[in-house]
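Structural prep section.
Before we set up the soaks we want a predicted structure of the protein with guanosine-5'-monophosphate in place, mainly to decide which crystallisation condition to try first. Input record follows.
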Amino acid sequence: MADCLFCKIANHEVPASIVYEDDSVVAFNDINTEATTHILVIQRQNIATLNDIKPCHDQIVGEVVRRAAAIAAERKISAGGYRVVFNTNREAGQSVFHIHLHLIGGRSLGWPPG
Ligand code: 5GP
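Run finished without errors. Recording the tokens verbatim:
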């Protein structure tokens, strides 16, 4: 989508600190990091929210989640623990309407989130 910030990051039209990319998935550091590790993992395909996920998206959702786990392992935060979050729509704080997984870790995380 022409006006989507995360599509532009995935296409290298907007700069970001990209930590991983392949043909279907891109991961980059969040610009307002909430922890030592705060990475956003996205699918290249523009899908606005989790509410729009259909069975045909199962593979790409799996790739996004597995990539988050792989990055957590690379950063050696797997054993200590980390959190993944998909904020969905405005009451949950979603501000960019291109599904993105927040991978947060590297410190103790409170629960429940605010
Ligand atoms: P949401 O609030 O939609 O769940 O998460 C959007 C995230 O995108 C926020 O954590 C915000 O800090 C991050 N973000 C917003 N604009 C940019 C940007 O231009 N570059 C990067 N790397 N992250 C951004």
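Observations: Residues 5, 16, 28-32, 40, 87, 93-96 surround guanosine-5'-monophosphate (CB under 6 Å).
Flagged for discussion at group meeting.
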